[in-house]
Here is the input.
Amino acid sequence: MGDLCTGVWWLPTACLRAWEILPAVFLDEATAFAAGHRPCGTCRNERYRTFKASWLNANPGAVASDRATITEIDKVLHAERAVSGGAKVTFEARIDTLPFGVFIEWKGSAYLLTETALLPWSFNGYAPAVPARQPIPR
Here is the structure.
């Protein structure tokens, strides 16, 4: 997790620090979040500030105060998604309990959950949507 840009249209040539070797380039923001990255605090500052404020609001008590540093938030995010040895944290849940914008694995493939469909994901982009029989209830 780190302060990397998260999309082909946000290449971080000006904001890379000396110890960062390559920019992170993702299909879209949902893919970047699923990979454990957040908006860049330098070149995507507005999205970064929105992300930080939203995360603090949605996770009261996860860090010491609402003035937590992004490093503290990054540590929480990393612990939630990875375990020792590099494995991913996964869990099973009913689809109607998940928020829109989350990635799921179903039948061995990755999908982005939207309000009305599942979007099959690949490194080449999204395939045509798999429509839900009805809107996913909340």
The beta strands are 103-106, 109-113, 117-122, 125-126, 130-131. The chain has a mean pLDDT of 78. The radius of gyration is 16 Å.
